[in-house]
Every structure is written in C-alpha cells, then in structure tokens.
Amino acid sequence: xxxxxxxxxxxxxxxxxxxxxxxxxxxxxxxxxxxxxxxxxxxxxxxxxxxxxxxxxxxxxxxxxx
Length: 66
Hints:
Layout: H1 2-17, H2 19-22, E1 33-38, E2 41-46, H3 47-65
Antiparallel strand pairs: 1-2
C-alpha cells in the first residue's frame, strides 16, 4: 500500500510539473467526445478520452505486475 501511495503521489507531482505542456494536448477534444453547450446547460461526455485513459492505466498496471 505504501508503494502505491508513493507512486501515485509522484505521478500527481509529475503531472503538476508538466501541466503547461499537458494542457496543450487535444485531450478532451478528441473525435467521439461529446459536448452539448446550450444556454443554461452544458454537457461534456469524453467517451474517447476515457477509453484512452483506461487503456493507458491498464498498460501501466500490467507493466507494474510484471
């Protein structure tokens, strides 16, 4: 559990340090991400982005288990 928390903390710190470059990626604006913007209502459904996040996390978990 301690190792997991340390790795998670380091990943969050790295994302914070790399944020100026990460914010320029088209994450959240990919084809398949649905945005409905109407007066008084906004819906954001990032289907494609979440599939990519799921694949990335699965790959990381697989690599850590090896």
